[in-house]
Amino acid sequence: MTKNNNASGPVLSVSDLSLEFVTRRGVLKALDRVSFDIARGEVLGVVGESGAGKSLTGSAIIGLIEKPGRLSGGEVRLNGERIDNLSPEAMRKIRGRKIGMIFQDPLTSLNPLFRVGDQIAETVMAHMNVSRAEARARALALLTEVGIPAPESRIDAYPHEFSGGMRQRVVISLALAAEPDLIIADEPTTALDVSVQAQIITLLKRLCRERGTSVMLITHDMGVIAETADRVAVMYAGRVAEIGPVADVIRNPQHPYAAGLMGAIPALKKNVGRLAQISGSMPRLNAIPPGCAFRPRCPKAFDRCAAERPDLMQAGKSRAACWLVDQGVPA
Amino acid sequence: MNSGMNAHMNSGSGETLVASRDLRRVFDVSSPWLERVLSGEKKRLLRAVDGVSFEIRKGETFALVGESGSGKSTVAKLVVGLLPPSGGDVTFEGIAKGRQPEAGSVQMIFQDPYASLNPRWRVRDIIAEPMSALNRPADPAARAARVGELLTLVGLSPLDGEKFPHQFSGGQRQRIAIARALSSEPAFIVCDEPTSALDVSVQAQILNLMRDLQEKLGLTYLFISHNLAVVRHMAHRIGVMYLGRLVEVQETEALFENPQHPYTRLLIDAVPDLADIGRDRVPVQGEVPSPINPPSGCTFHPRCPLVTDICKAQAPAFDGRTACHHAGKAFA
Fold it and tell me: Does residue A235 fall inside a structural domain?
């Protein structure tokens, strides 16, 4: 575990992060003043529908925004130090070393031409001062730890020789290889079947708990968040609509969008009859309404929602960006 | 809300509309002939659907659920006739006297509304196509009027008929696909993962719409999905598939209350649910084996916590509810 002079503060602190895409048809605001912290050892779930900006938030934190996208404001701090203004070279040293990454499709995150053991050993050697033999021993230990059967023989296999679930285990071992402080997992189980998804979630939870690694878990699946996360941020149209402890956001959502989202999810444990329905769909990025972005779909909107954009306000144990909270009206 | 829910749960008259008997489909996945001869390799066959029998009652939603490779989508294609079966048959007893259903009485809704609508056609032409193909109604003006009605029925505006598919969101496109399916006045609609490509709030709109349409028009659905929660919400009866075989068929509530097959229980347990905040669990081990070379006997035996010798030797027969040598037995 890396020690630093900021051991008590949050591992990651994002404040007012904004991201724009400059296009011929104007400037698209993909992220608009996104703020949240992730504490040491904490799992923060980031949930939202497609286009809400959850994956872009992850990419912005690790400095993988490509043109025409650009950060237009705010800052990202890792262990108290700013990382959003670092050079690409400096950022490359942080990726993998301080922040590990797990993406949705394990087949595209592994190089098909290299044996998995070599890929893990390469990551270990790139970030840690060890010999090739030590790196290989470490790769073997990692493959054992993530539950690859017969790791001594599998270490020299190619990615295509693994099943989807086993490949995602390899990706997890790669993300953990340099013992990062934070792992950003972007839809890590979306490409997997439910029974395999359950294995991967259990594995990720166990490893991060044992090592004290913080996780930013990006997913559209609220069930995965419920089971895995400590806190959850609900994103809508590039903004954080609500953030709070996972039990509070699920059982007692404060923002009307979060409430609608929870009601729209069919439950496994009981038949809920008709699902709650949010009419319409998320606005396009070039047509985000002024004031609250959710106003046109909101059943409880009033005048102030169109005029002023609400910031996150304390509502019980959560914080929600809704003027109803300001008025003391529950969603 | 309660009365609506009961009405949904009680529909299904008991009269059989569609029946599949011992349905089989084998795909030849061998290498090309010359390569096979040169390397002395044998033919490789993939039994995607291996003896599947079920009945769908008039007015009900029958769901097939399973993980990838279970053969559920192949069953959908066999039922609508997009693929010929390698064995067994599908009969449309409630729809037609003979073996073949009347033209237009069976329709399909596909998973990806971005791929299932022709991007060069206007929406009104997409929706009218089944009508023009069947020449029913014969009068073009009547067809145009019906397109407007259908668009209204699925929650769009008649004016939307002038637009092209790219002008719509994913959920709206799926509404267009539903309107097209309804335009030939089908009795039976096969829905293959109709909401898997959609966001949850949009999924809720489409699922509610499909239930409303079923009540209003007396439709019968075969609903294919990998999502158990969606299936629980939509189906009257559920069939669980594993490696090309049906392992369990039960009424929805019974299936969730009292699952008989260990795979069904593990599947229900594996789905993360909003109610399970912070749950830790022991997940089922292993993955779905390759259907090219399935395990002997009961194909689930390598992953099954109840496995005994008979499971490895002998495939269990389907008793009308489940196919398991140890059906209903408890395990930790």
Answer: yes
**Rounded distance between C-alpha atoms, residue B174 and residue B192, angstroms:** 12
Which has the closest alpha carbon to A260: A230, A313, A300, A218? A300
- C-alpha B79/C-alpha B222 separation (Å) is 9
The token pair at A243 is 């953030």
Q: Is the CB of B207 less than 8 angstroms away from the CB of A202?
A: no
**B167 — contact with chain A (CB < 8 Å)?**
no
Which pLDDT band holds residue B3 (cuts at 50, 70, 90)? Answer: very low
In a domain, A326, yes or no: yes
| pLDDT tens sequence across A101-155 | 998 888 888 999 999 999 999 999 999 899 999 999 999 999 999 999 899 999 9
CA B303, CA B299: separation in Å to the nearest integer?
9
- Report if residue A18 sits inside a domain: no
Q: How many Cα atoms occupy the beta-carbon half-sphere of B224 within 13 Å?
A: 24
Beta strand pairing call for A313-315 and A239-245: unpaired
Range of the domain at A248: 230-331
ipTM over 0.95: no
Q: Is B308 on the interface with A (CB under 8 A)?
A: no
DSSP 8-class letter at B322: B
List pLDDT tens digits, range A47-98. Answer: 998 889 999 999 999 999 988 899 999 999 999 999 999 999 999 999 989 9
In three-state secondary structure terms, B67 is coil
What's the CA dihedral at A133, A135, A139, A141 to 10 degrees?
A: 80
CB contact under 8 A, A267 and B229: yes
Number of domains within chain A: 1
CA dihedral in degrees (A292, A278, B196, A194; nearest 10)? 90
Sheet holding A239-245, edge to edge: A99-102, A182-186, A214-219, A43-47, A231-236, A239-245, A318-320, A313-315
Contact with chain A for residue B285, Cβ under 8 A: yes
B239: helix, strand or coil: strand
DSSP state of B162: G
> What are the structure tokens assigned to B205, written together?
């709109």
Task: Give a yes or no: residue A290 inside a domain.
Answer: yes
Q: Which amino acid is at B306?
A: L
